[in-house]
Amino acid sequence: MTLLKHRLFWPVAALVTLVVVNVIANPNFAKVTMRDGDLYGNPVTILRESAPLMLVALGMTLVIATRGIDLSVGAVMAVSGAVSLTIIADSPDPGSLGTVTVAIVVAVLVALVLGAWNGFLVSVLGIQPIIATLVLMLAGRGVALLITGGAITTVTSAPYKFLSNGYLILLPVAFFIWVAVVAIVALVERRTALGMLTESVGINPEASRLAGVRSRGIIWAAYMVSGLLAGVAGIINASNTMAADSNNAGYLIELYAILAVVLGGTSLMGGKFSIAGTVIGVLTVTTLDKTIQFFGVPPAQSPVFFAVVVVIVVLVQSPRVHAWGRAASARMRRTPSSGEPPTGPGAASAAKKHEEVAA
Predict the structure, then answer these.
(1) Structural domains for the chain
(2) Exposed (0-12), middle (13-18) or buried (19+): which is 248, by Cβ within 10 Å?
(3) Given Cys at both, which of 3, 52, 54, 243 links 178, Cβ 3.0 to 4.6 Å?
């Protein structure tokens, strides 16, 4: 029972169930092969393709922990990809490592500024997070279209493509990027007092402020980190396609990020958050997407299938559903079967009345 109560039990169980279903349906699902000294296969592909969503979900976790939400991450991804690819396309030497480095740095700084803008609206001006980030969600893609001139910018640059398709020590570079980011975020949030302060702000912002916690700065920083990580995700996404498609880059990723955070056990009410749970949630969402593709669900119908599976997983994790299950089990144990004497506080008086009637 202790294991069942662990906050990571149900997210891990959902991920394991998905993997088992895929392996039963296709024994080659978990097969990993080596070609030219690198590992290939569905598990490796999932680890690589999880990178953009993983980065966005990590930032979303910190924002949700402060009782906020960031709906602009997809737009920030589009802006970041547009900035980096435009710089590379306008450079006389697109394949130069220096050009790619400058493009990445500028794109990340732009994303950081956009995150700071969201944080300013929420923490300083007091605008509700869903409204503040909705502004950038709507305007961001327009900004990205202005940067690219309304066209899909494509480039050919080996160093830039290496970010998403390159390999390092048997595994994709994108995998090492998100692992490094997860390690840094976990180190900062769980090995310092920042994580506790973030949770205190999410649980009760006013009480935290009265206790001397600089809640405004913590909330502002959470949105800046979210924007920064969304910018890095946008670069990896653009690197994968080698094109800046402002309309489709990061489309609906904010919803999948929120879903991954919730599947990982973090409450949308703020407060307690789980970085490990978010990692498991992202891997679950990515694996589920692969499962839907494998079973041949048409793209137009896949959201329905996705929603049904997610509802089942969320219900299984729900504390209220668990309480209902325990209550029903307790009632079944208390209900006596036919032919058995009644038990409980009124059992003695009931037995005495039965004897009087018999006499």
Answers:
(1) 2-301 (1.10.3470)
(2) middle
(3) 54
